[in-house]
Amino acid sequence: MPGNLFIVSAPSGAGKSSLVKALLEADPGIKLSISYTTRAPRPGEVDGVHYHFVGVDAFRDMLNHGDFLESAEVYGNYYGSSQPWIEDQMRAGHDLLLEIDWQGAAQVRKLFPDAVGLFILPPSLAELKRRLEGRGQDSAEVIARRVEAAQEDISHAYSFDYLLVNDDFATALADFHTIVQAQRLHIRNQMSHLEPLLSELLGTPS
Ligand code: 5GP
């Protein structure tokens, strides 16, 4: 039985990474796809853990070789999800989570129409602005550009299956987990092991 594919997208400032990290800790049955990126590592980021950090030439070679299930340019850097890794894991029956932008989400859903798309929203524009102000060291112009970019991302929320509002973190995490659990209970995923029960229940009454 192939595993479930979950796609999580969000504008920056929605708290996506923290929610994904907490979900993975709470649910060992789900694995995160580690993307390839040409972006430089940020302080504290580890190659092979947060991303596979590669140069532009290596990324292009992989792209030409068909190594990416999806790929996109986001804010001037390239990102892609490993096709062989994802297919191997799904074939082995693992549930996978792809933390990717809306462009990648659209590509994956064309290939896997059963993939479940979640979009995380901040609770209000004021809170989004507050979160994007960061440590208060950036100019008003830089912050305004961040807010605009986030709004552009949010305009794509309509094409996802589920919307999660990250106001209270524990509530958003519980909602996230509910969506994962519900997908596991989908008839598509239950038929292989519940067929014997259904046959028994539908058998001739003695
Ligand atoms: P960051 O550079 O801040 O980690 O990520 C920037 C954006 O790129 C985020 O929206 C993130 O979800 C997205 N992203 C990360 N990995 C991938 C990927 O493999 N494919 C696509 N399409 N987007 C990705």
- The CATH class of the domain at 5-33 and 95-202 is Alpha Beta
Output the strand order for the largest sheet: 2-7-1-8-9
Radius of gyration: 19 Å
Largest sheet geometry: 5 strands, parallel
CATH homologous superfamily descriptor of the domain at 5-33 and 95-202: P-loop containing nucleotide triphosphate hydrolases
Judged by helices, strands and strand pairing, the structural class is: alpha/beta
Q: Report mean pLDDT, rounded to a whole number.
A: 95
Bound molecules: guanosine-5'-monophosphate
Please give the alpha-carbon distance between the first and last residues. 33 Å
**Contiguous uncertain segments of 5+ residues:** none
Helix content: 40-55%
Q: What fold name goes in the CATH topology slot of the domain at 5-33 and 95-202?
A: Rossmann fold
Shape: globular
Question: How much of the sequence is in beta strands?
Answer: 15-25%
Order of helices and strands: EHEEEHEEHEHEHHEHH
User: Please, what is the oligomeric state?
Assistant: single chain
> DSSP helix count?
8
Number of strands: 9
Proper CATH architecture of the domain at 5-33 and 95-202: 3-Layer(aba) Sandwich
Walk me through the structure:
By secondary structure, the protein is α/β, with parallel strands linked by helices. The chain has a domain at 5-33 and 95-202: P-loop containing nucleotide triphosphate hydrolases (Rossmann fold, 3-Layer(aba) Sandwich), CATH 3.40.50. The chain is 46% helix and 19% strand. It has helices at residues 16-26, 56-64, 83-91, 102-111, 125-132, 140-154, 169-184, 187-202; strands at residues 5-9, 30-32, 36-37, 52-53, 68-74, 77-82, 95-99, 116-121, 162-165. Strands 2-7-1-8-9 form a 5-stranded parallel β-sheet, sandwiched between helices. Strands 4-3-6-5 form a 4-stranded mixed β-sheet. The longest helix is centred in the last third of the chain and has 16 residues, at 169-184. The protein is globular and about 80 Å long. The relative contact order is 0.20. The model has no long low-confidence stretch (mean pLDDT 95). The protein binds guanosine-5'-monophosphate (5GP). Guanosine-5'-monophosphate binds next to strand 5, strand 6 and helix 4. The site of guanosine-5'-monophosphate (5GP) has 13 residues, from strand 5, strand 6 and helix 4.
